[in-house]
Amino acid sequence: MTQDGYYAVQLNSIEIPGEFDISFLTRTSNLKAGNIIFDSGTVMTMLDTDVVDELVRELTDFVSLPTEKPVAPHFKLCFAVRSTEQEEELPALWFGFNGQSGNLRVGPDKLFVWVSRFVKCLVITGTNDKVQVFGHITQQNFLVGHDLEKMELSIIEKDCTKLHEP
Fold first, then answer.
1. Best CATH choice for the domain 2-65+91-111+123-160 from the list 2.40.70.10, 2.10.109.10, 3.40.50.300, 3.40.50.620
2. Residues whose CB falls within 8 Å of the CB of residue 41, separated by 6 or more in sequence, listed in order
3. Of 36-50, 52-66, 96-110, which range is least confident?
4. For residues 89 and 95, is the Cβ–Cβ distance under 8 A?
5. pLDDT tens-digit series, residues 68-88
């Protein structure tokens, strides 16, 4: 549903199946419909601070790589990554939405960015605002469609570097 120029959807959970599941069903939002907006103009994904704290705890327990001190306050979790094999230990997350979007798998290439030669940081940060945002790094290589007549959001994984090839 559109609200204040944004498209709000209902995010129900973030999980690694069989490992952890963080529920959003009891969280409050200032949005009238849904609890998160998709905004390609916002760099990082911003979620409720309590959710991010829980996500950081779960990822720290799940990933066997050593953590590094975040290089900037907006990064809440960073890992030391010194090889391709170690980089492959960074997980994907499943975002559970209502409706057609269903469960969206977001790969580690859209969740962690290089901040120095051997450090990758999570691009999900906390906010105390009651509006959460699915930012553009997390949306990379997804074709996001907004059907304003049906009030639906569609998300399709797509190699966006090949959109204009014949």
1. 2.40.70.10
2. 136
3. 96-110
4. no
5. 999 898 999 999 999 999 999
